[in-house]
Design brief:
The structure is a homodimer. Chain A is α/β, with parallel strands linked by helices. The first copy, chain A, has a domain at 5-118 and 216-229: Thiolase/Chalcone synthase (Peroxisomal Thiolase, Chain A, domain 1, 3-Layer(aba) Sandwich). Chain A has 14 helices and 11 strands. In chain A, the strands form 2 sheets. Chain A has a 9-stranded mixed beta sheet, sandwiched between helices. In chain A, strands 5-6 form a two-stranded antiparallel ribbon. In chain A, β5 and β6 form a beta hairpin. In chain A, α1 (23-38) packs across α2, α3 (86-99) crosses α14 and α7 (162-176) packs across α11 (293-302). The longest helix of chain A is centred in the first third of the chain and has 16 residues, at 23-38. The first copy, chain A, is globular, with a radius of gyration of 19 Å. At the A-B interface, α2, β3, α3, β8 and α10 of A face α2, β3, α3, β8 and α10 of B.
Chain lengths: 395, 395
C-alpha cells in the first residue's frame, strides 16, 4: 500500500487586485506562512510544483522564479495546469509524488497575477480554455456565455429563476465578508445582484466570479514524515477523482450537468470510502467551483448533494449555509473570495484544512462532526474536473 | 514498495514544419500508433497527461481537445510544463500516477505546434523561460544568447573551439539522416556549420536546434497491467531525478555546468542503481538536450560521462558515435531530429524504448549489452532539469 499524504502547513495571500507586488513577492506571501506553520525549511523540501495558468503574466517560469526567491534551488519542480482546476492539478502532482514514494515533503503553490493584462485580454485568454478553433474563434463565445448556456438550460428544465441564482451570490458574499483573505469583504442583497448589469443573460455582474490576483500554498508530507516531525495539526488527502470533458460544447448531450464532474466524484467517493448515493452523510462541508452562480447549483447535483433539479431548492431553503444540510463555500467561494485561477484549488485545500481543524474565522466555522471536507474544482466548462476529499483521519 | 512502471506502446509523428495538420490531428499521428503498439484502446486508459508549452498555439486546452478527438473523455487529465523539459515532466506525471497506484494505464502525450506563430514571436516567447523581468526585458537576451554565455565560458576555461561545437552538429545530422521522423534528414560537414551565419557568437545557425512542430506519445503501464496484458515488448522506467535552477543567470556561480542537471543526475543514478562515479559502465547510450551544440558537451560532463573539460575530447575522438565510449543522440538529437518543446522528452523516451528493444532504423542501432538508456532533458538554461533512466529489466 502506497503512502498516505497529509497537509501539514498552509499559507494564503490576500486575494484581490495586487498591483503592490510582483509575481515572486505574491508567491512569497503564501510560501512564508506555509513554511512557518509546517515547521520546515526550504532545504527540507524534496520537490515542488506550481499551479498557474499564467497566460496573462510575463513571467513564464514561475517554478524557477520561486526556486531562487524562496531558496528551493536545486530541488526539482514542474508547472501543472488544468485551466481553472489548475490548483487541484498541482495538488495532484504533490499527492502522487509522495504517494509514489519519490518524496516525503512537497511544496504545492498556486498563483495567478491576472491583472497584469487588461480585462479584455484576460477574458479572451480564458475563453480559449475550450475549443478555440470552433467555439471561440467561430462563435465568439467567452466564459460567461459558455456557462450562461448551462444556466439557461437549468432554468428551462427545472424552473429556476434569476433570483435563485442571485441567492448563491448573496450567500457567498455573506461568508466572504467574514474571510480576511477574500477579494470582496462585503455583504450584498438579492437586489444588488438583480440590479447589476447583464454580462450574458441570465448572468449579471454579481453572478460572475471576478478577475483576481493571489497565491495559496500547502506543504504536503508523507505519513512517515508526519510521524518524524511529530505534526499535530494535519489534514489527510483521502482521495481525488478527475475527469475531462469534450473540447466542443456542441458535443455535450445535456446542459444541466457536467459529466466530467460526475465521473470525478464517483472516483473520489470510491477512493475516500464515501457512499456515492449519500455523500452528505460523510461530509461536514464543501467548496465548489462557483465561477458563475448557476455553476454552484449544478455542482450540488453533480456531486449528489441532492437529487437532480433540487439544487435550487437547497439555495431557496438556505441549506448550504452553516447549520443547513451541507455548508458550501463558506469562505466566500470563487464569487466573493476571488478566483486567481491557479490558486483556487490550493485555496480550497486550505479551507478544508482550516475548517476541519476548526481554525476558520468567527462566523464562518462549520460544525465538524464527520471529519471530512470536499473540494470541487472545474476547469473550462467542465473541460477538466477535480474532486478531492480531505479528512481528519487517514484511510 | 510502490508499483514498477513500463512503457508498453509508443507513437511518433513526423517532426518538422507541419502546416498540413491542426493540433488535434498532429496529436493523433502519435496517439494512434501508441494505442496500436500497446494493444490497448482509449477506454482502457485511466488517466492522461499532455506535455505542451503551447504559448504559440491558439488552443489552450489540448487535453480536452484530445479527450474528444481520441475518445479519452471522461477520463481525468492535466497539462504538465517545465519549459523545454516539458515532455519529461509529463512522463513524470504518468510515472507517479501509476507508481502511487492511482492508475494502471496512463497515456502521456507531448506536442508542440510552434510554427503557428511567426519565428520572431516564438523566439520571444521561449526567451521568457528564465527571469523575464530582469534578463529578458532589461537585457534583451533570447536563448541563443543565454547558451552562448555558457559556450563562451567553456571555450575560455577549456580551450574548446567553434570547430569542436560544429562536430556535435555533424554527428547529430549524421544520425538524423537515418531517422525517418527527423526534421532534417541530411548529413552536413564541419564546413557547413562554420560557414553558416552567426546567431549569437560562438553559435552559428547550424549550432542551434530548430523550431519544430511534432508530437510523441507513450503508454505507461503498471507491472500488474503488464502481466495481465502479457506484454512482451516493454521498457521500464528505472528512475528519474529532477532539478531547478535560479531564474536569473546572474545568480549562477559557474557557466560551464548546470547545477540543476548535476542534482537531477545524482538522484536518477541513485534510484536506478547506477554508480554515479562511472555511469557509462551501466548505460548503452543516451539522449541529451543539445538545444545548442555546446550544451551537449556540457551535458556529457554534468552527467559524468567524462571528467570536467573532457567533453570536447569525446567529440574530437568521436566517442559518442555508435561504437564509441557512449553513443549520444543517435536519433539526431534536438539539433537534427527537431525540438517541438513538449514532445522532446517523450521522443527521448521513445528512443530509449527503440534502442533497448533493438528496433532502431538501419545504421543507428546501438549495441545493447547493459540494457539501460538515459534521457537528459533541460528546460530554460538549466532552469529545469529532468534525467530519466530506462531499462530492459525492472529494478
Amino acid at each position: 500500500m502506497s503512502e498516505n499524504v497529509a497537509i501539514i502547513g498552509t499559507g494564503h495571500s490576500k486575494f484581490g487586485t495586487r498591483k503592490d507586488v510582483n509575481v515572486a513577492e505574491l508567491c512569497w506571501e503564501s510560501i512564508k506562512p506555509a513554511f512557518e506553520s509546517a515547521g520546515v525549511e526550504p532545504k527540507d523540501i524534496d520537490y515542488f510544483v506550481v499551479g498557474t495558468a499564467g497566460m496573462w503574466s510575463s513571467e513564464a517560469a514561475v517554478p524557477a522564479l520561486i526556486a531562487e526567491y524562496a531558496g528551493l534551488e536545486p530541488k526539482g519542480s514542474m508547472r501543472a495546469e488544468a485551466a481553472c482546476a489548475t490548483g487541484s492539478a498541482a495538488i495532484r502532482v504533490g499527492y502522487t509524488t509522495i504517494k509514489s514514494e519519490l518524496a516525503d515533503l512537497v511544496l504545492v503553490l498556486g498563483v495567478e497575477k491576472m491583472q497584469e493584462s487588461p480585462s479584455s485580454t484576460v477574458i479572451e485568454l480564458i475563453g480559449r480554455f475550450g475549443s478555440y478553433f470552433w467555439e471561440f474563434e467561430n462563435f465568439g463565445l467567452t466564459f460567461p456565455g459558455y456557462y450562461a448556456m448551462y444556466g439557461t438550460a437549468y432554468m428551462i428544465k427545472y424552473g429556476a429563476t434569476e433570483e435563485d441564482f442571485a441567492k448563491v451570490a448573496v450567500k457567498n458574499h455573506y461568508y466572504g465578508a467574514k474571510n480576511p483573505y477574500a477579494q470582496f469583504q462585503r455583504e450584498i442583497t438579492v437586489e444588488t445582484v438583480l440590479k447589476s448589469p447583464y454580462i450574458a443573460w441570465p448572468f449579471k455582474l454579481y453572478d460572475c466570479s471576478p478577475i483576481t490576483d493571489g497565491s495559496a500554498c500547502v506543504i504536503l508530507a508523507s505519513e512517515e514524515k508526519v510521524k518524524e516531525l511529530g505534526v499535530e495539526e494535519k489534514v489527510w488527502i483521502l482521495g481525488q477523482g478527475t475527469g475531462t470533458g469534450t473540447a466542443n460544447l456542441s458535443k455535450r448531450k445535456d446542459f444541466t450537468s457536467l459529466p466530467s464532474v460526475v465521473h470525478a466524484a464517483e472516483i473520489a467517493y470510491k477512493i475516500a470510502g464515501i457512499d456515492k448515493d449519500d455523500p452528505v452523510k460523510y461530509l461536514d462541508g464543501a467548496d465548489v467551483h462557483d465561477c458563475f452562480t448557476a455553476a454552484e447549483i449544478i455542482a450540488y447535483e453533480d456531486l449528489n448533494f441532492c437529487r437532480r433539479g433540487e439544487g435550487m431548492k437547497l439555495v431557496r431553503e438556505e441549506q448550504t449555509y452553516i447549520g443547513g444540510r451541507i455548508p458550501v463555500n463558506i469562505d466566500g467561494g470563487l464569487k466573493a473570495k476571488g478566483h486567481p485561477i491557479g490558486a483556487t484549488g490550493v485555496s480550497q485545500a486550505i479551507e478544508a484544512y482550516k475548517q476541519l481543524l476548526q481554525k476558520a474565522e468567527p462566523g464562518r466555522q462549520a460544525d465538524i462532526v464527520k471529519g471530512r471536507w470536499l473540494a470541487h474544482n472545474v476547469g473550462g466548462t467542465g473541460h477538466y474536473a477535480y474532486v478531492t476529499v480531505y479528512g481528519l483521519e487517514k484511510r
